[in-house]
Amino acid sequence: MSHSGHHAERNSLAASVEKYVEVKSQKCYQCGKCSAGCPVADEMDYPPSMVMRMLQTETPANDEKLLKSHSIWLCVTCEMCLSRCPMEIDIPSAMDFLRQKSMSEHKENPKAKNIIAFHKAFLNSIKNTGRLYELGLILNYKMKSLNMTQDMALGPKMFSRGKLHIFPEKIKDTNHISKIFKNTEK
Ligand code: SF4
Ligand code: SF4
Asked: In which residue ranges of the chain is pLDDT below 50?
């Protein structure tokens, strides 16, 4: 067995993604279907399949690039990639984790300033109401804070299908949520 030599702790971003959101980037075999279906891939510095590939390398340089990337902020959690992936790799959850990690390490890409403002407003909505804002309020805020070209790229279909959510609905653990707030309120 090639992995049986030692039990050294993996310190990589891929290991954290695996530990905290249970997404195994190593399962990705680079078929590219996720990137082909991603509505914002063209705007991204690293499309979703590349994000998976970079995680797989488990090198500090690539981990750093990912945390500083624009891609993680452009991802709108539409789950198109997940629905197309033959390995059912939950890229949106991985992206969400990378956003949290990027924020907590103050590595946010400067180009993502408006998106991050939106993201933080979203966190506040969860904090204040214990649930996500109504869609109307989100769109209202989005109009004011995000540039319209990004919205155009997404198209109206996504909104009508109720696919617009920056966070996976599976966040139920309030400890996890309060940890996020500690990181974002600094
Ligand atoms: S969830 Fe994110 S990475 Fe996946 S297709 Fe949608 S925007 Fe692209
Ligand atoms: S669709 Fe799945 S297996 Fe294919 S490149 Fe994307 S993440 Fe990897």
From this structure: 1-5, 133, 147-149, 151-152, 155-172, 184-186
Cα separation, 68 vs 102, in Å, equals 7
Let me know: does 106 contact 37? Beta carbons within 8 Å. Answer: no
> Given this model, what pLDDT does residue 60 score?
97
The domain ranges of the chain are 13-184
Contact by Cβ (8 Å): 38, 48: yes
**Mutation test residue for ligand 2: of 34, 44, 46, 82, the one with most atoms within 8 Å of CB:** 34
Give the residue among 83, 154, 79, 142 at the shortest CA–CA distance from 115.
142
- Pocket-testing residue among 81, 165, 166, 169, ligand 1, by greatest number of atoms within 8 A of Cβ: 81
Output the pTM of the full model.
Answer: 0.69
How far apart CA 54 and CA 52 sit, in angstroms, is 5
